[in-house]
Amino acid sequence: MNGWLLRLLRVPPEPTPPDGSPDSILVFRAGRNYFRWRIVVWAVSQVALIAFAFVPLVVLSQAHKLPPLVFDLLAGFEALYLASLLAIIPLTFWMQKLNYELRWYIVTDRSLRIRSGIWAVQELTMTFANIQDLRITEGPLQSLLGLADLEVRSAGGGGAPGPYGASVHSHGARFAGVDNAGQIRDLIVERLRRYRDAGLGDGHDPHPVSASPSLESATAELLREARALRAAVEAN
Fold this sequence. Notes:
6-stranded mixed beta sheet, 9 strands, 50% helix, alpha+beta
């Protein structure tokens, strides 16, 4: 069913990794309790919608003065609404599951990428050159569930859009609902230190491109001609 829904919603199964070496790619996911909490919220909302659907039934049961035709039409609409509500419960549950499974947090040695959403895919990419601050936030409920959010703040803001979905312009990225926020923070701090020690943020290329043989030979030939011209000028 996952594949069918992904094709229906035109959602790519996974994001492409951000800039960085392939062997440095690490993928983090939201904690399992994050999914459980979303299911609890979803279940409460479904119960509230079903309970609200029975209110017109109670009103109709007391509406003895309505014409029979009007009463039958209203009762038919109410039954159709309730049946539709019950029919889409499996679909909305699966949407909650997909929302959890398609939440990606990817970190490389040069950048990070966060993607979330189903109906509107949001993807944010941030390079280590723009990272200014990392902060862990944890509310009482999150603490109870063993979860936290890791906020990565940038100096200038502006999240670059990924290859899929709408671009996200923000001054920071959020690793929402993770159960290892401290581990992710320490990893980013360590890689950020290596990134800056290597001079990548100062426009220095640690792997300079060497000159090609044709360029070297052309340069040597030009140098020989310049020396010959200088010798001729001095002789005259």
